[in-house]
Protein backbone atom coordinates (compact mmCIF):
# COMPACT_ATOMS: atom_id res chain seq x y z
CA UNK A 1 0.00 0.00 0.00
CA UNK A 2 1.47 3.36 -1.04
CA UNK A 3 1.52 6.19 1.54
CA UNK A 4 -0.73 9.12 0.84
CA UNK A 5 0.67 12.18 -0.91
CA UNK A 6 -0.25 14.19 2.17
CA UNK A 7 1.85 11.95 4.41
CA UNK A 8 4.87 12.04 2.09
CA UNK A 9 4.69 15.84 1.86
CA UNK A 10 4.45 16.29 5.62
CA UNK A 11 7.25 13.77 6.18
CA UNK A 12 9.59 15.57 3.79
CA UNK A 13 8.66 18.94 5.28
CA UNK A 14 9.59 17.68 8.72
CA UNK A 15 12.85 16.24 7.42
CA UNK A 16 14.05 19.45 5.75
CA UNK A 17 13.20 21.60 8.75
CA UNK A 18 14.68 19.40 11.47
CA UNK A 19 17.01 21.30 13.81
CA UNK A 20 20.65 20.36 13.74
CA UNK A 21 21.49 17.66 16.25
CA UNK A 22 25.26 18.03 16.06
CA UNK A 23 27.18 21.33 16.44
CA UNK A 24 29.64 21.92 13.62
CA UNK A 25 32.78 23.97 13.12
CA UNK A 26 31.98 25.68 9.83
CA UNK A 27 35.18 27.69 9.99
CA UNK A 28 37.18 24.45 10.00
CA UNK A 29 35.06 23.06 7.17
CA UNK A 30 35.63 26.20 5.08
CA UNK A 31 39.39 26.17 5.62
CA UNK A 32 39.62 22.50 4.71
CA UNK A 33 37.32 22.78 1.68
CA UNK A 34 39.78 25.27 0.16
CA UNK A 35 42.89 23.33 1.23
CA UNK A 36 41.58 20.34 -0.73
CA UNK A 37 42.43 22.02 -4.03
CA UNK A 38 46.13 21.87 -3.24
CA UNK A 39 45.85 18.09 -3.34
CA UNK A 40 44.44 18.29 -6.88
CA UNK A 41 47.15 20.46 -8.37
CA UNK A 42 48.93 19.43 -11.52
CA UNK A 43 52.24 20.87 -12.64
CA UNK A 44 55.13 22.34 -10.68
CA UNK A 45 54.08 22.97 -7.10
CA UNK A 46 54.96 26.21 -5.31
CA UNK A 47 57.03 26.54 -2.14
CA UNK A 48 53.84 27.50 -0.30
CA UNK A 49 52.27 24.09 -1.03
CA UNK A 50 50.54 22.96 2.18
CA UNK A 51 49.44 19.49 1.05
CA UNK A 52 53.01 18.33 1.51
CA UNK A 53 52.56 14.72 0.37
CA UNK A 54 52.01 15.91 -3.22
CA UNK A 55 54.88 16.52 -5.66
CA UNK A 56 55.43 17.91 -9.14
CA UNK A 57 53.62 16.09 -11.94
CA UNK A 58 52.77 16.26 -15.66
CA UNK A 59 55.53 18.75 -16.46
CA UNK A 60 55.43 18.05 -20.21
CA UNK A 61 51.71 18.52 -20.80
CA UNK A 62 51.02 20.10 -24.19
CA UNK A 63 54.29 18.96 -25.73
CA UNK A 64 52.59 16.95 -28.49
CA UNK A 65 50.96 20.21 -29.68
CA UNK A 66 54.08 22.33 -29.12
CA UNK A 67 52.47 24.37 -26.39
CA UNK A 68 52.60 24.77 -22.62
CA UNK A 69 49.66 23.11 -20.88
CA UNK A 70 51.40 22.52 -17.56
CA UNK A 71 49.31 23.24 -14.47
CA UNK A 72 45.62 23.24 -13.68
CA UNK A 73 43.73 20.65 -11.66
CA UNK A 74 43.05 16.95 -11.86
CA UNK A 75 39.28 16.89 -11.64
CA UNK A 76 38.87 13.85 -9.39
CA UNK A 77 40.73 10.75 -8.29
CA UNK A 78 42.39 10.19 -11.65
CA UNK A 79 45.18 12.02 -13.46
CA UNK A 80 43.38 13.47 -16.48
CA UNK A 81 42.77 17.19 -16.99
CA UNK A 82 39.24 17.66 -18.31
CA UNK A 83 38.92 21.35 -19.14
CA UNK A 84 35.12 21.46 -19.14
CA UNK A 85 34.58 20.57 -15.45
CA UNK A 86 37.77 22.44 -14.51
CA UNK A 87 36.28 25.64 -15.93
CA UNK A 88 33.04 25.08 -14.00
CA UNK A 89 35.11 24.58 -10.85
CA UNK A 90 36.79 27.94 -11.46
CA UNK A 91 33.44 29.65 -12.06
CA UNK A 92 32.11 28.38 -8.74
CA UNK A 93 35.25 29.36 -6.82
CA UNK A 94 34.93 32.83 -8.32
CA UNK A 95 31.20 33.05 -7.53
CA UNK A 96 31.99 31.97 -3.96
CA UNK A 97 34.46 34.85 -3.70
CA UNK A 98 32.09 37.38 -5.24
CA UNK A 99 28.90 36.61 -3.32
CA UNK A 100 30.26 35.02 -0.14
CA UNK A 101 33.72 36.56 0.20
CA UNK A 102 32.41 39.01 2.78
CA UNK A 103 31.68 36.03 5.05
CA UNK A 104 35.27 34.77 4.83
CA UNK A 105 38.21 35.80 6.97
CA UNK A 106 40.97 37.63 5.05
CA UNK A 107 43.07 34.48 5.27
CA UNK A 108 40.36 32.21 3.86
CA UNK A 109 39.51 34.74 1.16
CA UNK A 110 43.15 34.91 0.15
CA UNK A 111 43.51 31.14 -0.03
CA UNK A 112 40.34 30.91 -2.12
CA UNK A 113 41.78 33.41 -4.60
CA UNK A 114 44.97 31.33 -4.74
CA UNK A 115 42.90 28.22 -5.53
CA UNK A 116 40.99 30.17 -8.17
CA UNK A 117 44.13 31.58 -9.78
CA UNK A 118 45.65 28.11 -10.07
CA UNK A 119 42.69 27.29 -12.29
CA UNK A 120 42.45 30.56 -14.23
CA UNK A 121 46.19 30.70 -14.95
CA UNK A 122 45.73 27.36 -16.65
CA UNK A 123 42.48 28.28 -18.40
CA UNK A 124 44.27 31.28 -19.93
CA UNK A 125 46.66 28.78 -21.49
CA UNK A 126 43.76 26.81 -22.97
CA UNK A 127 42.58 29.89 -24.89
CA UNK A 128 46.01 31.41 -25.56
CA UNK A 129 45.81 30.62 -29.29
CA UNK A 130 42.41 32.17 -29.96
CA UNK A 131 40.78 33.24 -32.20
CA UNK A 132 41.61 30.05 -34.07
CA UNK A 133 42.37 27.31 -31.53
CA UNK A 134 41.09 26.15 -28.14
CA UNK A 135 42.67 23.39 -26.07
CA UNK A 136 40.07 21.00 -24.67
CA UNK A 137 41.68 18.15 -22.76
CA UNK A 138 44.98 16.64 -21.59
CA UNK A 139 45.51 12.92 -21.01
CA UNK A 140 43.94 9.77 -22.40
CA UNK A 141 41.16 8.69 -20.12
CA UNK A 142 41.06 4.96 -20.80
CA UNK A 143 44.80 4.29 -20.39
CA UNK A 144 44.77 6.51 -17.31
CA UNK A 145 41.79 4.71 -15.80
CA UNK A 146 43.44 1.37 -16.53
CA UNK A 147 46.33 2.31 -14.24
CA UNK A 148 46.41 3.06 -10.52
CA UNK A 149 49.36 5.46 -10.33
CA UNK A 150 50.05 8.57 -8.30
CA UNK A 151 50.38 11.71 -10.47
CA UNK A 152 54.11 11.97 -9.79
CA UNK A 153 54.73 8.60 -11.50
CA UNK A 154 52.45 8.87 -14.52
CA UNK A 155 53.66 6.97 -17.58
CA UNK A 156 50.33 6.87 -19.41
CA UNK A 157 49.92 9.05 -22.54
CA UNK A 158 49.58 12.78 -21.86
CA UNK A 159 48.07 13.57 -25.24
CA UNK A 160 46.67 17.07 -25.48
CA UNK A 161 43.63 17.70 -27.67
CA UNK A 162 42.65 20.91 -29.43
CA UNK A 163 39.91 22.19 -31.72
CA UNK A 164 40.58 24.64 -34.52
CA UNK A 165 38.08 27.06 -36.05
CA UNK A 166 35.51 26.52 -37.43
CA UNK A 167 35.09 23.38 -35.34
CA UNK A 168 32.51 24.00 -32.59
CA UNK A 169 33.21 24.21 -28.87
CA UNK A 170 30.39 26.41 -27.58
CA UNK A 171 29.87 24.48 -24.34
CA UNK A 172 33.54 24.39 -23.38
CA UNK A 173 34.27 27.92 -24.60
CA UNK A 174 31.09 29.19 -22.94
CA UNK A 175 32.13 27.71 -19.60
CA UNK A 176 35.66 29.07 -19.91
CA UNK A 177 34.10 32.46 -20.70
CA UNK A 178 32.05 32.23 -17.50
CA UNK A 179 35.09 31.23 -15.45
CA UNK A 180 37.31 34.03 -16.74
CA UNK A 181 34.58 36.68 -16.52
CA UNK A 182 33.59 35.67 -12.99
CA UNK A 183 37.24 35.56 -11.94
CA UNK A 184 37.76 39.04 -13.38
CA UNK A 185 35.19 40.27 -10.84
CA UNK A 186 36.76 38.26 -8.02
CA UNK A 187 40.23 39.74 -8.72
CA UNK A 188 39.11 43.28 -9.52
CA UNK A 189 40.28 44.77 -6.22
CA UNK A 190 43.10 42.41 -5.29
CA UNK A 191 44.77 42.32 -8.73
CA UNK A 192 43.23 44.77 -11.24
CA UNK A 193 45.83 44.08 -13.93
CA UNK A 194 45.12 40.36 -13.83
CA UNK A 195 41.40 41.10 -13.71
CA UNK A 196 41.61 42.99 -17.01
CA UNK A 197 43.57 40.18 -18.66
CA UNK A 198 40.88 37.72 -17.58
CA UNK A 199 38.04 39.88 -18.84
CA UNK A 200 39.64 40.62 -22.21
CA UNK A 201 40.24 36.91 -22.78
CA UNK A 202 36.70 36.07 -21.63
CA UNK A 203 35.27 38.39 -24.28
CA UNK A 204 37.44 36.79 -26.97
CA UNK A 205 36.54 33.28 -25.81
CA UNK A 206 32.83 34.08 -25.98
CA UNK A 207 33.28 35.21 -29.58
CA UNK A 208 34.63 31.75 -30.43
CA UNK A 209 31.79 30.07 -28.52
CA UNK A 210 29.09 32.07 -30.27
CA UNK A 211 30.65 32.11 -33.74
CA UNK A 212 31.25 28.34 -33.90
CA UNK A 213 28.12 26.89 -32.38
CA UNK A 214 27.97 23.27 -31.35
CA UNK A 215 29.33 20.93 -28.70
CA UNK A 216 33.03 20.28 -28.22
CA UNK A 217 32.29 16.56 -28.15
CA UNK A 218 30.80 16.71 -31.66
CA UNK A 219 34.36 16.14 -32.83
CA UNK A 220 35.04 12.35 -32.98
CA UNK A 221 38.59 12.54 -31.58
CA UNK A 222 37.54 14.72 -28.67
CA UNK A 223 34.43 12.65 -28.07
CA UNK A 224 36.55 9.51 -27.76
CA UNK A 225 38.84 11.30 -25.30
CA UNK A 226 36.17 12.98 -23.15
CA UNK A 227 33.28 10.53 -23.23
CA UNK A 228 31.66 8.94 -21.36
CA UNK A 229 33.27 10.97 -18.57
CA UNK A 230 32.52 14.56 -19.58
CA UNK A 231 30.30 14.48 -22.63
CA UNK A 232 28.15 17.57 -22.86
CA UNK A 233 24.88 15.65 -22.61
CA UNK A 234 22.86 18.81 -22.03
CA UNK A 235 24.10 20.49 -25.19
CA UNK A 236 25.83 23.83 -25.61
CA UNK A 237 23.13 26.52 -25.53
CA UNK A 238 23.03 26.79 -21.74
CA UNK A 239 26.76 27.58 -21.73
CA UNK A 240 26.20 30.39 -24.24
CA UNK A 241 23.66 31.95 -21.87
CA UNK A 242 25.95 31.28 -18.91
CA UNK A 243 28.94 32.94 -20.55
CA UNK A 244 26.84 35.92 -21.65
CA UNK A 245 25.34 36.26 -18.17
CA UNK A 246 28.77 36.47 -16.53
CA UNK A 247 30.01 38.91 -19.16
CA UNK A 248 26.96 41.07 -18.51
CA UNK A 249 27.73 41.02 -14.79
CA UNK A 250 31.43 41.72 -15.36
CA UNK A 251 31.03 44.49 -17.95
CA UNK A 252 27.49 45.89 -17.69
CA UNK A 253 27.53 46.11 -21.48
CA UNK A 254 24.05 46.14 -23.04
CA UNK A 255 25.11 43.82 -25.87
CA UNK A 256 25.07 40.92 -23.44
CA UNK A 257 21.72 42.00 -22.00
CA UNK A 258 20.24 41.99 -25.50
CA UNK A 259 21.83 38.61 -26.18
CA UNK A 260 20.24 37.17 -23.04
CA UNK A 261 16.83 38.62 -23.85
CA UNK A 262 16.84 37.50 -27.49
CA UNK A 263 18.10 33.96 -26.85
CA UNK A 264 16.38 33.01 -23.59
CA UNK A 265 13.60 30.98 -25.13
CA UNK A 266 15.53 29.60 -28.09
CA UNK A 267 18.38 28.47 -25.83
CA UNK A 268 16.08 26.76 -23.33
CA UNK A 269 16.31 28.79 -20.12
CA UNK A 270 12.91 27.34 -19.18
CA UNK A 271 13.97 23.77 -19.98
CA UNK A 272 15.53 21.57 -17.27
CA UNK A 273 15.47 24.60 -14.98
CA UNK A 274 15.75 22.38 -11.89
CA UNK A 275 19.28 21.32 -12.86
CA UNK A 276 22.69 22.81 -12.12
CA UNK A 277 26.16 21.34 -12.33
CA UNK A 278 29.21 20.99 -14.57
CA UNK A 279 27.02 20.01 -17.54
CA UNK A 280 23.70 21.84 -17.11
CA UNK A 281 23.95 25.55 -16.28
CA UNK A 282 20.26 26.49 -16.65
CA UNK A 283 19.53 26.78 -12.92
CA UNK A 284 22.62 28.89 -12.41
CA UNK A 285 21.82 31.15 -15.36
CA UNK A 286 18.38 31.97 -14.01
CA UNK A 287 19.63 32.67 -10.47
CA UNK A 288 22.60 34.74 -11.65
CA UNK A 289 20.47 36.92 -13.92
CA UNK A 290 17.80 37.15 -11.24
CA UNK A 291 20.22 39.27 -9.20
CA UNK A 292 20.21 41.95 -11.86
CA UNK A 293 16.43 42.04 -11.77
CA UNK A 294 16.51 42.38 -7.98
CA UNK A 295 19.22 45.03 -7.87
CA UNK A 296 18.64 47.04 -11.04
CA UNK A 297 15.01 46.22 -11.83
CA UNK A 298 15.86 45.27 -15.42
CA UNK A 299 12.39 44.25 -16.54
CA UNK A 300 13.65 42.81 -19.83
CA UNK A 301 15.28 40.01 -17.81
CA UNK A 302 12.30 39.35 -15.54
CA UNK A 303 11.52 36.02 -17.21
CA UNK A 304 14.85 34.64 -15.91
CA UNK A 305 13.96 35.66 -12.37
CA UNK A 306 10.50 34.10 -12.73
CA UNK A 307 12.07 30.77 -13.70
CA UNK A 308 14.56 31.04 -10.85
CA UNK A 309 11.60 31.45 -8.48
CA UNK A 310 10.00 28.31 -9.92
CA UNK A 311 13.19 26.46 -9.14
CA UNK A 312 13.31 27.77 -5.57
CA UNK A 313 9.67 26.82 -4.99
CA UNK A 314 10.45 23.24 -6.03
CA UNK A 315 12.59 22.82 -2.91
CA UNK A 316 9.57 23.50 -0.67
CA UNK A 317 7.25 20.47 -0.44
CA UNK A 318 4.11 22.42 0.43
CA UNK A 319 4.12 24.24 -2.91
CA UNK A 320 2.37 23.12 -6.08
CA UNK A 321 4.27 22.05 -9.18
CA UNK A 322 7.45 19.94 -9.51
CA UNK A 323 9.43 19.12 -6.39
CA UNK A 324 12.98 18.20 -5.54
CA UNK A 325 13.55 14.84 -3.87
CA UNK A 326 15.08 14.17 -0.46
CA UNK A 327 16.44 11.01 1.11
CA UNK A 328 14.77 9.80 4.34
CA UNK A 329 17.64 11.49 6.19
CA UNK A 330 17.00 14.84 4.49
CA UNK A 331 19.67 14.95 1.77
CA UNK A 332 18.75 16.59 -1.53
CA UNK A 333 18.73 13.71 -3.96
CA UNK A 334 18.78 13.58 -7.76
CA UNK A 335 19.15 10.45 -9.85
CA UNK A 336 22.34 10.23 -11.86
CA UNK A 337 25.85 11.33 -11.02
CA UNK A 338 27.39 11.50 -7.60
CA UNK A 339 24.90 12.74 -5.05
CA UNK A 340 26.91 15.40 -3.29
CA UNK A 341 27.76 17.01 -6.63
CA UNK A 342 24.05 17.81 -6.96
CA UNK A 343 23.74 18.74 -3.29
CA UNK A 344 26.64 21.19 -3.43
CA UNK A 345 25.59 23.01 -6.59
CA UNK A 346 21.90 23.23 -5.67
CA UNK A 347 22.69 24.33 -2.11
CA UNK A 348 24.82 27.14 -3.50
CA UNK A 349 21.94 28.39 -5.66
CA UNK A 350 19.49 28.23 -2.75
CA UNK A 351 21.76 30.23 -0.49
CA UNK A 352 22.60 32.72 -3.22
CA UNK A 353 18.96 33.33 -4.04
CA UNK A 354 18.11 33.72 -0.37
CA UNK A 355 20.72 36.48 -0.13
CA UNK A 356 19.30 38.20 -3.22
CA UNK A 357 15.85 38.13 -1.62
CA UNK A 358 17.18 39.49 1.66
CA UNK A 359 19.19 42.29 0.07
CA UNK A 360 16.09 43.49 -1.77
CA UNK A 361 13.74 42.97 1.24
CA UNK A 362 11.61 40.52 -0.69
CA UNK A 363 9.96 37.17 -0.08
CA UNK A 364 9.82 34.11 -2.30
CA UNK A 365 6.45 33.90 -4.08
CA UNK A 366 5.13 30.40 -4.83
CA UNK A 367 1.60 30.85 -6.10
CA UNK A 368 -0.48 32.03 -3.18
CA UNK A 369 2.26 31.13 -0.70
CA UNK A 370 5.03 33.43 0.51
CA UNK A 371 8.30 32.34 2.11
CA UNK A 372 10.98 34.26 3.92
CA UNK A 373 14.57 33.85 2.65
CA UNK A 374 15.38 31.87 5.80
CA UNK A 375 13.11 29.09 4.52
CA UNK A 376 15.69 28.44 1.81
CA UNK A 377 18.62 28.82 4.18
CA UNK A 378 17.18 26.16 6.50
CA UNK A 379 17.19 23.66 3.65
CA UNK A 380 20.83 24.47 2.93
CA UNK A 381 21.75 24.22 6.60
CA UNK A 382 20.27 20.74 6.65
CA UNK A 383 22.42 19.76 3.66
CA UNK A 384 25.62 21.18 5.14
CA UNK A 385 25.08 19.49 8.49
CA UNK A 386 24.24 16.21 6.76
CA UNK A 387 27.53 16.33 4.84
CA UNK A 388 29.48 17.10 8.01
CA UNK A 389 28.08 14.14 9.95
CA UNK A 390 24.46 14.79 10.95
CA UNK A 391 23.15 11.86 8.90
CA UNK A 392 21.92 8.29 9.47
CA UNK A 393 25.44 6.90 8.98
CA UNK A 394 26.88 9.38 11.54
CA UNK A 395 29.71 9.86 9.06
CA UNK A 396 31.38 13.00 7.79
CA UNK A 397 31.58 13.02 4.01
CA UNK A 398 34.40 15.56 4.17
CA UNK A 399 37.76 13.84 4.53
CA UNK A 400 39.65 15.08 7.57
CA UNK A 401 36.65 16.72 9.22
CA UNK A 402 35.38 15.22 12.47
CA UNK A 403 36.27 11.90 14.00
CA UNK A 404 34.46 9.60 11.56
CA UNK A 405 35.08 9.99 7.84
CA UNK A 406 35.90 7.55 4.98
CA UNK A 407 39.53 6.45 5.03
CA UNK A 408 39.61 4.48 1.76
CA UNK A 409 38.61 7.03 -0.84
CA UNK A 410 38.85 6.51 -4.60
CA UNK A 411 41.87 8.72 -5.24
CA UNK A 412 45.19 7.62 -6.67
CA UNK A 413 47.46 10.15 -5.00
CA UNK A 414 45.83 9.75 -1.61
CA UNK A 415 45.90 5.95 -1.63
CA UNK A 416 49.50 5.38 -2.77
CA UNK A 417 52.48 6.17 -0.48
CA UNK A 418 53.82 9.62 -1.29
CA UNK A 419 57.13 10.33 -3.00
CA UNK A 420 58.47 11.66 0.30
CA UNK A 421 57.93 8.21 1.87
CA UNK A 422 58.46 6.01 -1.18
CA UNK A 423 60.64 7.91 -3.70
CA UNK A 424 60.84 5.04 -6.19
CA UNK A 425 58.14 4.92 -8.84
CA UNK A 426 55.14 2.65 -8.26
CA UNK A 427 53.96 1.38 -11.62
CA UNK A 428 50.55 0.74 -13.09
CA UNK A 429 50.09 -2.90 -12.06
CA UNK A 430 51.67 -2.68 -8.57
CA UNK A 431 49.33 0.22 -7.96
CA UNK A 432 46.31 -2.05 -8.30
CA UNK A 433 47.49 -4.15 -5.37
CA UNK A 434 47.32 -0.96 -3.31
CA UNK A 435 43.87 -0.22 -4.71
CA UNK A 436 42.61 -3.60 -3.49
CA UNK A 437 44.29 -3.29 -0.10
CA UNK A 438 41.96 -2.98 2.92
CA UNK A 439 44.34 -0.45 4.48
CA UNK A 440 43.34 3.20 4.89
CA UNK A 441 44.78 5.70 2.44
CA UNK A 442 48.19 6.81 3.76
CA UNK A 443 47.76 10.41 2.59
CA UNK A 444 44.79 12.33 3.94
CA UNK A 445 43.22 14.47 1.22
CA UNK A 446 42.05 17.04 3.74
CA UNK A 447 38.81 18.78 2.88
CA UNK A 448 37.77 16.48 0.03
CA UNK A 449 34.00 16.09 -0.12
CA UNK A 450 33.36 12.69 -1.70
CA UNK A 451 30.46 11.39 -3.79
CA UNK A 452 28.31 10.50 -0.81
CA UNK A 453 25.52 8.07 0.04
CA UNK A 454 22.76 6.41 -1.94
CA UNK A 455 19.11 7.51 -2.02
CA UNK A 456 18.37 5.44 1.10
CA UNK A 457 21.19 7.21 3.02
CA UNK A 458 23.28 4.02 2.99
CA UNK A 459 27.00 4.31 2.37
CA UNK A 460 29.12 1.26 1.54
CA UNK A 461 32.45 2.97 0.96
CA UNK A 462 35.74 1.53 -0.27
CA UNK A 463 37.92 2.49 -3.22
CA UNK A 464 35.95 0.21 -5.56
CA UNK A 465 32.77 2.25 -5.01
CA UNK A 466 33.94 5.31 -6.92
CA UNK A 467 30.47 6.85 -7.15
CA UNK A 468 30.46 7.03 -3.35
CA UNK A 469 34.09 7.68 -2.42
CA UNK A 470 35.62 9.72 -5.24
CA UNK A 471 36.09 13.45 -4.60
CA UNK A 472 35.86 16.05 -7.37
CA UNK A 473 36.81 19.70 -7.61
CA UNK A 474 33.28 20.61 -8.70
CA UNK A 475 31.78 19.15 -5.52
CA UNK A 476 34.08 21.23 -3.32
CA UNK A 477 33.91 24.52 -5.22
CA UNK A 478 30.24 25.36 -4.52
CA UNK A 479 30.61 24.28 -0.90
CA UNK A 480 33.29 26.96 -0.37
CA UNK A 481 30.67 29.71 -0.54
CA UNK A 482 28.14 27.71 1.47
CA UNK A 483 30.57 26.98 4.31
CA UNK A 484 31.59 30.64 4.33
CA UNK A 485 28.01 31.74 4.94
CA UNK A 486 27.49 29.41 7.89
CA UNK A 487 30.92 30.24 9.30
CA UNK A 488 29.61 33.78 9.75
CA UNK A 489 26.15 32.60 10.81
CA UNK A 490 26.95 29.51 12.94
CA UNK A 491 23.85 29.82 15.11
CA UNK A 492 21.40 30.04 12.24
CA UNK A 493 18.43 27.75 12.82
UniProtKB/TrEMBL annotation:
Identify the Pfam families for this entry: Glyco_hydro_9 (PF00759)
The UniProt entry annotates the active site at 410
Q: Which reaction does it catalyse?
A: Endohydrolysis of (1->4)-beta-D-glucosidic linkages in cellulose, lichenin and cereal beta-D-glucans
Q: Where is the signal peptide?
A: 1-21
This protein's record includes keyword Hydrolase: yes
Record-listed E.C. numbers: 3.2.1.4
Q: Does Hydrolase appear among the keywords?
A: yes
One GO term of the biological process aspect: cell wall organization
- Single annotated GO MF: cellulase activity
The UniProt keywords, alphabetically, are: Carbohydrate metabolism, Cell wall biogenesis/degradation, Cellulose degradation, Glycosidase, Hydrolase, Polysaccharide degradation, Signal
Tell me which InterPro entries the record gives. 6-hairpin_glycosidase_sf (IPR008928), 6hp_glycosidase-like_sf (IPR012341), Glyco_hydro_9 (IPR001701), Glyco_hydro_9_His_AS (IPR018221)
Positions of the Glycoside hydrolase family domain: 26-482
Question: Matching PROSITE patterns, A to Z?
Answer: GH9_2
Question: Which PANTHER family is this protein grouped with?
Answer: ENDO-1,4-BETA-GLUCANASE
Describe the family membership recorded for this protein in Swiss-Prot or TrEMBL: Belongs to the glycosyl hydrolase 9 (cellulase E) family.
The protein in question is named: Endoglucanase
What is the native source organism of this protein? Answer: Capsella rubella
Amino acid sequence: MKPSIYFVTVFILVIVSLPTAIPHDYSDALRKSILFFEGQRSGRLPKQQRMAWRGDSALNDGRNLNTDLVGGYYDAGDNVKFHFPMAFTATMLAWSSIDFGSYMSPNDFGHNLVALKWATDYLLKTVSQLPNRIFVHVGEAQPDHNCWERPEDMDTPRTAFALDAPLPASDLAGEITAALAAASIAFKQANPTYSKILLDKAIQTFQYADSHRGSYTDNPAVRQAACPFYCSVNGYKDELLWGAAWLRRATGIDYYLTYLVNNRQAFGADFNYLEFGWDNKVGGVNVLIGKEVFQKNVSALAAYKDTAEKMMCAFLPETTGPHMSYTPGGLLYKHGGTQLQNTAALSFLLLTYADYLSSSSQQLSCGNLKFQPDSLRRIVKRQVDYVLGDNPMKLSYMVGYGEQYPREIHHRGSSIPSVTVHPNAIGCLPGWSIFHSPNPNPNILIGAVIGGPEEDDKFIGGRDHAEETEPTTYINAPFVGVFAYFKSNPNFA
